[in-house]
Amino acid sequence: MKKFFKWVFMAAIAAVFIGTFVFLYKKSQPKEEVYEICTAELKDLEKSTVVTGKIVPRDEVYIKPQISGIISELYKEAGQMVKKDEVIAKVKVIPDMGSLSSAENRVRLAEIKLNQAKTDFDRMERLYNDKVVSAEDYEKSLVTLNQAKEELSNSRDALNIVRDGVSLSHAKMSTTLIRSTIDGLILDVPVKVGNSVILSNSFNDGTTIATVADMTSLIFRGNVDETEVGRIVEGMPVTITVGAVQDLKLNAVLEYISPKGVESNGANQFEIKAALMIPDSISLRSGYGANAEIVLERAFKTISVPEAALQFSGDSTFVYLLTDSVPKQVFQRQNVETGLSDGINIEVKKGLKVGQKVRGILKQEEKS
């Protein structure tokens, strides 16, 4: 009985040993290399670049005051349409005390001179009627009187401008009334009633009362890398994709390429602008993010294969032609001359014919 168990135990050990050996032997056998097969086909290829940018109005104007003061009234708000010369806001002038005092003194002096001129003229008129003085002296006295009247009018006008910002003789052209300089849509009104504003001059930009733009004429503005700017020209067609509007693609025409680059993140970027062609049924907002696709090159009805099928060795480019597939795949090296690539497929100018099959990506399959 003991002998029987001994043989059984030895047989089990042998079975385990043989099974392990067979398993390891199968694992050590190389897997058969099986490749995907690609067919050379006629295709239209194009290489394009994508530029990121924004949709902006062609004409965007910052409305600024011609006088410093405080916003006393706002007549418009963002989102409203405005006509040229239409009033957007009113500014209350806070006069400079020195200028105000000088203007008031000028008025008082003008009044004194006018009173004196009236007295002199009345005296001269009586003497002239009595034929005591000449007509020339009389006329000089009249001119002096008229000059005094004009000086008083001018001094009062100057006082009103300093004090109220309004000219008495040109009330309609008051600088306290902030008017739009173009027809368009008000994009932003960054001030509120009570805010202080300053006029624009050579020392500062002034306070922006409103931003007005013509939204009927929109452009795409973006930046293209220096490696691609030499391959685009004004007049090229552009396809614009607006991220905020699903499935919207617009046609555009490249109309401007900056002659000067600007460094950004270590690379030179050149600004481009493209005029949008927008259907009447579509409404866009200023500042929408967008991508512009510009086709750099095209090749029509050309023999092409996937780029993954290409192999390289030194200066040589080649593919492996499929010559047999039974019982296993057999390939033959074939040198080719390539051309345009769209990032997925590549043009083969020489070395392949339509319908020929070439080796693609490797995939592993275990032997059965």
Detailed description of the structure:
- With 368 residues, this protein is an alpha+beta fold.
- The protein folds into four domains: 80 residues, conserved putative lor/sdh protein from methanococcus maripaludis s2 fold; 93 residues, Elongation Factor Tu (Ef-tu), domain 3; 69 residues, OB fold (Dihydrolipoamide Acetyltransferase, E2P) (Beta Barrel), CATH 2.40.50; 68 residues, Helix Hairpins.
- 26% of the residues lie in helices and 41% in strands.
- The protein contains four helices and 22 strands.
- Strand 20 and strand 21 form a beta hairpin.
- The model has no long low-confidence stretch (mean pLDDT 83).
**Alpha plus pi helix count:** 4
Q: What is the count of β-strands?
A: 22
For the termini, the CA-CA separation is 43 Å
> What number is the mean pLDDT?
83
Q: Beta-strand percentage?
A: 35-45%
Helix and strand arrangement:
Blueprint: H1 2-28, E1 32-39, E2 41-57, E3 60-63, E4 69-74, E5 81-82, E6 87-92, H2 97-129, H3 135-164, E7 177-179, E8 184-188, E9 196-197, E10 210-213, E11 218-225, H4 226-229, E12 237-242, E13 249-257, E14 262-264, E15 267-277, E16 289-306, E17 311-313, E18 316-324, E19 330-335, E20 337-341, E21 345-350, E22 357-365
Helix pairs in contact: 2-3
